[in-house]
Amino acid sequence: RSLLTKLLANALVVEIQPFMSSLPQRPLILKTGVRFTVTLRFLANLPEFKCLLKVKPVFDKDVEEPMTVNGFRHFDFNRDDYKVLDVDTPGGGLVAEFGNLSLKERKARGKGTNESRLAVTEELHIIKFVTGLQHAGLKCNIEASSLPVVVISSTNQSSSAWASVMWFNMLSTSEPRNLLLFVDPPPLMWQQLGQALSWQFLSVGQRELDENQLSMLKDKIVDNPDDVVHWSNFSKNESAWIWIDGILNLIKRHLVDLWRDGFIMGFVSRKRTRVLLQEKQPGTFLLRFSESNKDGAITFSWVEHSNGETHVHAVEPYTKQELSAVSLPDIISRYSLRAQWNVTRNPLLYLYPDIPKDTAFGRYYNNSEMSAPKKVVDGYLDRRLASFSDSPTPPGSPPREMSMDMEINMEIHHMLMELSSDLFELPELPDIYTSHLECQ
Amino acid sequence: RSLLTKLLANALVVEIQPFMSSLPQRPLILKTGVRFTVTLRFLANLPEFKCLLKVKPVFDKDVEEPMTVNGFRHFDFNRDDYKVLDVDTPGGGLVAEFGNLSLKERKARGKGTNESRLAVTEELHIIKFVTGLQHAGLKCNIEASSLPVVVISSTNQSSSAWASVMWFNMLSTSEPRNLLLFVDPPPLMWQQLGQALSWQFLSVGQRELDENQLSMLKDKIVDNPDDVVHWSNFSKNESAWIWIDGILNLIKRHLVDLWRDGFIMGFVSRKRTRVLLQEKQPGTFLLRFSESNKDGAITFSWVEHSNGETHVHAVEPYTKQELSAVSLPDIISRYSLRAQWNVTRNPLLYLYPDIPKDTAFGRYYNNSEMSAPKKVVDGYLDRRLASFSDSPTPPGSPPREMSMDMEINMEIHHMLMELSSDLFELPELPDIYTSHLECQ
DNA sequence: ACAGTTTCCCGTAAATGC
DNA sequence: TGCATTTACGGGAAACTG
To answer: Are B299 and B315 in contact (CB under 8 A)?
Structure first.
């Protein structure tokens, strides 16, 4: 009998569907005021209990400790009603679905010792579902608990919340269901963390991190020889995770294709970028993520030869703002440098190590850049956006004296000046009129 | 005594602060679930009533008619409490402020005759504030009513709602507080409507419509000789107002400066644009709003001469999406056309009638386009976005035979081809390598 | 003053109702 | 089915609150 009771008590399982379809799997973050769904399954196949079991959700049931000691917030359900376990369609098991749950903070925050209070995204809560059973003289209370959840009030907290969820998951075998995990969070081995990070990229961008990328991240995150990572280094302010999560979001929104297809080296230090590019042919470039921008940004670096010297340049990183207006492949395809005498050119020729630009990115171009057909739609001239820069002065050459190159350029410049007014039948407007000549 | 009662009954006045700071003046649109503030002022200066008068808001008090006959929605206050009239700080008058009111639709929508129901943005409601007074044997009920309000549930309705408010305001002298105004809305004279529209532009963009702009709008909106405008023409689907409001929003968000300073002709038909530009010198352009885009869009048209013919071209209109990435002055300053042999140039020289482009727009450029200083920030090359098009083929010339111009272009093209590999110390990559020459 | 946290609310997308 | 209307909620910014 006692066995049966125990069996029944463990037969109820909880399954939460998260509110954030945008976040990759694992339903452990809930936002106040936003609906989520919980499905309860009574694993014991006992149709005779059909419609006898009323299930009720309770927030943080029986967990006085964290609330009082650490001043955890407390939440209630906005519409707390119960559901009756009913027969499942296919299996015949008993199921109840709460399709409309949402949380609301209970104000009157306890006089909690607010000294060393945890960050709200480090509070772990649980939701229990309770029901009672009386049948044939048998009487038992059944309850089932969710995995720990992090409750946030704004999407600007989802990054930190996600850090907690990852850390919890990585420790869940050694510290099962410890709601005070973050009071004294155990450190992790890099090996473990790196794997978890890699999964994030797999989940968001359909491709894991390769060895080089992991190695660059390890250099940034691990600062001791024993490969241990501490929670505060990973998650606290100016942390690695916030930076990485910004990049994950950038990939999710604007770079899925490129990431999936492996064209983004991404995690390369400036220094290594220089080393890699320096020995490649001029015009070779690679894509890397900004290491300073916390919102996710991507730039390209390329190598040029000038006056016998080798230069590696990088453009100011593009953020989600720019990428909402122009896709990265289009930016790359149209990027141009304007130098003295307004000689302009696209310095990007080969994706590292030696893939011709259009071979790599041609498939993503919007208007088939290569054979651009003029389009006039509804009487309007089609238009596109391009990113351009002023050419960087190769250090130590032009300011000194006019080089041979420049003299030639000036000659062409003057020739064009004279031709241009005829070519375009314009009046003489040399100081305003502009014209470009492009060879390809 | 009856006089006094009447006096007191009229002494209470209502003042609603709207939720939409984004919309110009007139607090007559309320959105469900969004807070608004109501200030009540008891004009009779009677401090002896201090704290005696409890005021309570009531939605659509005593207006059974519209609700039942026309199936109006009904709303309740989310937190309906009362306030006590208290002494105002400066004047000594009595004041109560409801700072936290918001509306919620009462479901169980009456069995209302849902045939010819008005659109929800045509429902006019009122909010009354009631209080009672017993003093020295005097007993009277006091109530004050707000001006009519339009209640919406989403910002996607604000445009239509604003149309109703305007129409109501224009008729308010002849039809005071008629909540069923839109059951049979009286028409307006164009004179009146035009003035109101002009005020919208004044309010949003700090500049009214001029005679030419009004005249273009009149041509679009008025289709009869007696200058009368009917509500359905103004407000119903594919209506003039939705189009105009899109433009107002575009101005508010992206074009305030240009509009205020009068550089946007804006409301000009395509036909008139052609007429205006045709007789101007080549490179003359003007800014006009798209007549088809309902979300607000702006384009430029310019005149060119080619093969002795005059052509007027227009670029595909720019919407808020593009203007969030690049400002219109920057777009104009950087716009370029790419023609055969990749001769490219900026066709925009003079803002109509003859203002040099930079004289008009120079003040708005972001990086002082004119004397563009190369910038390298934090090791990154600065970059900008430019809009460009493929040059329209001047009808009837190039496809036939190679013109003199093109032969010259080809020659330059070949010259540059040969020079370019030296200039930039590149290996031979004639089919990928690109270069531009610009004269200015 | 300030940072962590929550609220507010637009604007878009999706869901709902008719 | 289509259109009118409402709901949902991310995301940026303001407001709160210790």
So the answer is: yes
Residue A114, pLDDT score: 56
Is the separation of the CB atoms in A129 and A14 below 8 Å? yes
User: ∠A334-A340-A345 over CA atoms, to 5°?
Assistant: 20
The answer to whether residue B408 scores a pLDDT higher than 70 is no
CB of A90 less than 8 A from some CB of B: no
Q: Test A292 with B378 for CB contact under 8 angstroms.
A: yes
pLDDT of residue B398: 42
Give yes or no for A430 touching B (CB within 8 A).
yes
Angle subtended at Cα B108 by Cα B102 and Cα B110, rounded to the nearest 5 degrees: 105
How many angstroms separate the Cα of B413 from the Cα of each of A265, A314, A366, B342?
Answer: 36, 29, 27, 9
Cα-based distances in Å from A199 to A24, A191, A195, A205: 10, 13, 6, 10
Minimal C-alpha gap between B11 and chain A (Å): 40
Q: Among A188-192, B226-230, B245-249, B368-372, which stretch is predicted with the lowest mean pLDDT?
A: B368-372
Residues 306-345 of B with CB under 8 A from A: 306, 313-317, 321-322, 324-326, 336, 338, 341-345
Out of A306, A345, A427, the one facing B435 most closely (by C-beta) is A345
Asked whether residue B400 carries a pLDDT value surpassing 50, the answer given is no
The rounded Cα A41 to chain-centroid distance in angstroms is: 33
A8 near A142, Cβ under 8 Å? yes
Please give the pLDDT value at position A369: 58
Q: What is the pLDDT of residues A75-116, one digit of tens each?
A: 999 887 788 877 766 666 778 888 889 999 998 755 555 566
pLDDT tens readout for residues A45-64: 776 777 778 888 999 988 87
- Can you say whether the dihedral through the CA atoms of B281, B283, B285, B291 is positive or negative? positive
Q: For A293-303, what is the mean pLDDT?
A: 94
Whose tokens are 């690695």? That residue is A240
SS (H, E, C) chain A: CHHHHHHHHCCEEEEEECCCCCCCCCCCEEECCCCEEEEEEECCCCHHHCCCCEEEEEECCCCHHHHHHHCCCCEEECCCCCEECEECCCCCCEEEEEEEECEEECCCCCCCCCCCCCCHHHCCECEEEEEEEEECCEEEEEEEECCCEEEECCHHHHHHHHHHHHHHHHHCCCCCCCCCHHHCCCCEEHHHHHHHHHHHHHHHHCCCCCHHHHHHHHHHHCCCCCCEECHHHHHCCCCHHHHHHHHHHHHHHHHHHHHHCCCCCECCCHHHHHHHHHCCCCCEEEEEECCCCCCCEEEEEEEEEECCEEEEEEECCEEHHHHHHCCHHHHHHHCEEECHHHCEECCCCEECCCEEHHHHHHHHCCCCHHHCCCCEECCEECCEEEEEEECCCCCCCCCCCCCHHHHHHHHHHHHHHHHHHHHCCCCCCCCCCCEEEEEC
Res. B187: pLDDT tops 70: yes
B353 preceded by cis ω (within 30°)?
Answer: yes
Show Cβ contacts of residue A91 under 8 Å, excluding neighbours closer than 6 positions.
Answer: A45
Cβ-Cβ contacts under 8 Å, A435 against chain B: 343-345, 437-439
Residue with the bigger pLDDT between B318 and A8: it is: B318
Edge-to-edge strands of the sheet including A86-87? A12-17, A36-42, A94-101, A86-87
Please report the pLDDT score of residue B432 as a whole number.
28
Q: In what helix (H) or strand (E) does residue B208 lie, and over which residues does it extend?
A: none
Convert the pLDDT of each residue in B191-218 to its tens digit. 999 999 999 999 999 999 999 999 999 9
